[in-house]
Amino acid sequence: MLDAYVAMNITQQNQFRDTANKLLSYTFLCRDKKDNRESYYFLMSYKEVFDEFFKILGYEINLDTTLGTVMLEGASASNTLKLKRDESIILLILRLLYHEKAKDASLNDNIICSVADVHEKYDYLQIKRKLNKTDLVSSMRLFRRYNLVEITGDITTSTCRIVILPTILMAIKSEDVTSVYQTIMHITNEEADK
After folding, report:
1. Of 79, 71, 83, 75, which Cα lies nearest the Cα of 36?
2. What is the pLDDT of residues 54-72, one digit of tens each?
3. Cα–Cα dist 60/50, whole Å
């Protein structure tokens, strides 16, 4: 790995450092997101070097060229983000919306929903506690930071558009939408039992 790194020119070494830091900070990269594109393609070009580097740190790179996504997986639970109840439910709802809307979209289409769609799905699930604006805004900012969504417009309005990035398929790997519903119901039932 060190030989391959030393063989890079200064620009490539800087790009390697920036891409590695992006993965460590954000976990996910998406080819379709403008500020990720350069890092995504650089990682593809030097995948073996990245693999060796992250293996030393106890991580593994999961690259899906079909979706255009990258996820940095770690073996240590200490590096796992713990989501709050509403953040978990909103993430699962976004995964459901991605699944539903992807059926009608072509491979090159962005999967887009609105804030109203998130509220509608939340209400459909008959969760006792209503979703408030502060929790939704906070959750969306968190998911945008981790390259799971892009937000177009004012997130506090119901017409705000949310682009659900394909990285959501790596964040929630369930192929079975029923299991996503069951996970939501499990979370809400646990909350009701307390």
Report:
1. 71
2. 999 899 999 999 999 999 9
3. 9
